[in-house]
Amino acid sequence: MNKEVGIRHDAEGARASSSQLLNLCDRSPEKAMEWLETSPSGLSEEQVEARRLRFGANEVTHERPPRWYEQLFYAFLTPFNGVLFAVSVVSLFTDVIFAAPADRSYRTVIVLVAMVLLSTLLRFWQEFRSNQAAEELKAMVRATTAVLRAGMERPQEIPISALVPGDIVYLSAGDMIPSDVRVLTAKDLFVSQAMLTGEAIPVEKHAVPPGIVGNAPAASSTARSPLELETACFMGSNVVSGSATAVVAVTGNATYFGAMAKDIVGARPLTSFDRGISRVSWLLIRFILAMTPVVFLINGLTKGNWLEALLFAVSVAVGLTPEMLPMVVTANLAKSAVTMARRKTIVKRLNSIQNFGAMDILCTDKTGTLTQNKVILERHLDIHGNEDSQVLEFAWLNSYHQTGLKNLLDVAVMEYAQAQDVIDGMKHYRKIDEIPFDFMRRRMSVVVRDGGNQNLLICKGAIEELLPLCSMADDNGALPGGEVPFTEDRRKQVRTLTRDLNEDGLRALAVAYKWLPPEDRTYTVTDETDLVLAGYIAFLDPPKETASTAIAALKDYGIGIKIITGDNEVVTRKICKEVGLAVENIILGQDIEALSDLELAEAAEHTTIFAKASPMQKSRIIRALQSRGHTVGYLGDGINDAAALKDADVGISVDTAVDIAKESADIILLEKNLMVLEEAVIEGRKTFANIIKYIKMTASSNFGNVFSVLIASIFLPFLPMLPIQMLTQNLLYDISQVSIPWDNVDVEYLKVPRKWDARGLARFMVFIGPISSIFDVTTFIVMWFVFGANSVAQQSLFQSGWFVVGLLTQTLIVHMIRTQHVPFVQSRAAGPVIALTASIMAIGIYLPFSPIGEHLGFVPLPAPYFAWLVGILLGYCTLTQIVKHFYIRHFHQWL
Q1: C-alpha–C-alpha distance, residues 478 and 482, integer Å
Q2: Quick check: 811 and 840 in contact, CB under 8 A?
Q3: Scanning 466, 516, 806, 837, which has the fewest C-beta atoms within 10 Å of its C-beta?
């Protein structure tokens, strides 16, 4: 390979790539290939391997999955592990380093380290598994490109990452540009560079740069920006229409996009999920930091032993720390990703799962979602509404000879024409040129010649866009040649006829033509004037049988559906009516343009159908709804959906979508079906529900424990529980929480979209938490007066009694708070939750009688204690249920 082209994949090489690409593009296609030491038939395998070793994979800097040891390190770095680690260091100094040899004890340090290790290893294992699963799922939707290499009979699809400089690639509408390439041949190639420039209008690319003479470089080109090169396409852009062959000039980080990606990697803004978790975490940490000094001061002042008071305050801080939160969050997300994969949903970003569940508005196109996406050509009519074979022939010529993206309408035309045996009579036409489709014109034209002395331009497109271009109409021979002036009366008749077709659920396109001189030249949109209207072709896309059921189900789950389509409003209204989607209001694309952002936000709130919407208008609608506080999902699969997919809170695409749509999405559906979407939404809400369960349990339980500790510290002549005992209790309680990600969720809870609410959590904590303190104080009274644990000599009995009550009430709170119903009766936890909590409760009861309990400072409890224990637990569950019921009625929510 030419030394000039040996672009280094480092920062200096990335900066140099622009000038080198300029130099390459100013050469003719033949000279460009010669410079890259390649040929139209592609590189040999030996060349490919040599260049892959030299330049590496065609990948830009991105957030690669962390290595296992990096994951392990980051699993440790959580705010709550930080609290535990700091406490363990304090315990190391107080219990070991500064303690007398006879009093040295590693028990507290060991328990603390065990808690940190348990939390870290569980989180690491869940994240490690989830990252592996996510990478496997991403591989299922990995982008490919068509490449021709030496020895291949035809281009073959290979992963984009396998490209090397000098490869010959084939591009067509819907493709992502796989690297920085130099165009070799182009046919009406229009490329969207919006991702790089922000400019929404596609730019046309050519094989031969303007101003080139022979094989000499065009000197003026060196003064231009690389993105203005007419003969270059850049990684990150996408083909809107047309086709091309190109040679790969630059790959990986040396591309224009790669140089940008190095600066922006990791700069993704926080999602609502990230912000919610952060707010809740710091709420709990502030609570810990506020209460721990209070406990320390009260115990120091009342007991006089400041070292012991410090150790106890440290233990309280540990007890208040929800150290399992990172593991519970990660386990929930990972489990949901695997479950959703089984239900035909691929999660590209784990955090999008909760956003999926929080979604309260879904914006979608109707085609393939509400309809079967199996378009059938139903009618081919003249301007009076009569069947006309000439209209079908013109439509077939247009659909067959276009080289851009053949959509379902083109396929329907070709299949119908083949069934009607009209193709053989059209094969003598030779294509001269085409004017490709774009989303602004909403039409496309081909120019053909039948061997005679005239060219025939055939234009097919949206009726509203095409009628203004027609000056004549084909009246089937009413005048010589069959052409009559297209008067205003005839225009009214056309609009009436097409509206009738639309009201029957048919989508109608106009077909027009124009005879031109037999020139072999390049045709442009300026030739699409003074056309003759031939007639219409009408298509039927029947509604899906499951659409009405899915819409009703999504409505039951609090999700409003809004249709954003490029189709007209009459057809869309008809389809919505058939599938049971009530239409509140309709806005057309032209009306959107006249609205300010504030006005659009107000209008979008009460609008069901946005018809004739352009790609940029789709994005505006998404942002307008978000500005009103909605969590918005967008389901799309086309080139014109990419911007909206990125702007939505949850971008949803399908595995059959074009590359740019799949790359822009957060979630990929393996079936474009609202029923699949409903199942994914439910899974997202289950994820949130089980995460919030743990937070509610931990926050309310910890808040109650603080009150109990403060009360006991004031009146007792000894510590209500030793630091090691409190740490053991907290460790056992944490283990009981591990199964929460596998718990059931009440159907009623899933019916409403949920968002993070730190204020609501604080209110819940203050309202529910003190209930446990009532029964803790009851336990204090029983142990003091009934069992005589009222002196320093009997403190072990007191501590053993409160340890069991505290652990059992903390564990029972799992069942009390997990549902707004009566636990065990109206709502039962999943098997793993019942088994684990029952096991922990059994261990807690046994511990004072065990050899380990003796080392922890426990003593066996007398038999009458357990009668009191049953009464205390029943009273606790009953009062919690009463207060819970009052809370729900008063605040109209269960968080």
Answers
A1: 5
A2: yes
A3: 516
Query: How high is the pLDDT of residue 14?
Result: 41
Query: Where does the chain hold its CATH 3.40.1110.10 domain(s)?
Result: 383-431+445-535
Catalytic annotation present for 504: no
Name 318's Cβ contacts closer than 8 Å, sequence gap at least 6: 83, 84, 87, 112, 115, 726, 727, 730
The pLDDT of residue 478 is 44
Residue 191 pairs in a beta bridge with 203, 239
Output the six-digit token pair for 814.
């799992």
- Choose, from 175, 180, 188, 365, the residue flagged as catalytic: 365
- Residues with Cβ < 8 Å from 743, sequence gap 6 or more? 690, 693, 818, 829, 830, 832, 833
pLDDT > 90? residue 72: no
**pLDDT at 756 > cutoff 50:** yes
In CATH terms, the superfamily for domain 347-371+544-670 is: HAD superfamily/HAD-like (3.40.50.1000)
Beta bridge partners of 205: 189
Per the CB < 8 A criterion, the answer to whether 337 and 347 are in contact is yes
Check whether 57 has a pLDDT greater than 70. yes
Joined together, the tokens standing for residue 270 give: 């926080």
pLDDT bracket for residue 219 (50, 70, 90) = very low
The one-letter amino acid at 19: S
Ranges 626-630, 683-687, 693-697: which has the least confidence? 693-697
Residue of 70, 115, 133 lying closest to 734 (CA atoms): 115
Q: Are 736 and 811 in contact (CB under 8 A)?
A: yes
Q: Is the pLDDT score of 7 beyond 60?
A: no
Of 619, 665, 620, 657, the residue nearest 639 (C-alpha): 657
Position 559 scores a pLDDT of 92
Please check the confidence at residue 227 and state whether its pLDDT lies above 90: no
Helix axes 306-320, 79-91, angle to 10 degrees: 160
What pLDDT score was predicted for residue 41? 92
Looking at the domain that runs over 273-338+682-891, which CATH code has it been given?
1.20.1110.10
Q: What is the mean pLDDT of residues 196-204?
A: 66
Query: Residue 470's pLDDT band (boundaries 50, 70, 90)?
Result: very high
Please say if the pLDDT value at position 643 is more than 60: yes
Of 306, 331, 408, nearest in space to 656 by CA: 408
> Cβ of 345: how many Cβ atoms within 10 Å?
26
Is the per-residue pLDDT at 114 higher than 80? no
Residues 6+ apart with CB under 8 A from 118: 731, 734, 735
Sequence-ordered list of residues with C-beta below 8 angstroms from that of 697, at least 6 positions apart, any chain: 737, 813, 814, 817, 818
Q: Is the CB of residue 312 less than 8 Å from the CB of residue 723?
A: yes
Higher pLDDT, 62 or 264: 62
Decide: helix, strand or coil at residue 102.
helix
* Residue limits of CATH 3.40.50.1000 in the chain: 347-371+544-670
Alpha-carbon distance of 358 to 632, in angstroms, equals 9
Q: How far apart are CA 75 and CA 326, in angstroms?
A: 8
- Structurally, at CATH architecture level, domain 383-431+445-535 sits in 3-Layer(aba) Sandwich (3.40)
For the chain, residues classed under CATH 1.20.1110.10 are 273-338+682-891
Residues 794 and 787: their CA atoms lie apart, in Å, by 10
Of the listed ranges 266-270, 355-359, 477-481, the least confidently predicted one is 266-270
The Cα 773–Cα 703 span in angstroms is 9
Q: In CATH, which of 3.40.50.10320, 1.10.540.10, 2.70.150.10, 3.40.50.150 is domain 3-58+163-264?
A: 2.70.150.10
Look up tokens 């249709």; give the residue. 563
Closest CA to 439 of 173, 219, 665: 173
Q: Report the pLDDT value the prediction gives residue 537, as an integer from 0 to 100.
A: 94
Question: What 3 state SS string does 132-167 have?
Answer: HHHHHHHHCCCCEEEEECCCCCCCEEEEHHHCCCCC
pTM for the full model?
0.65
Distance CA 714, CA 711 (A): 5
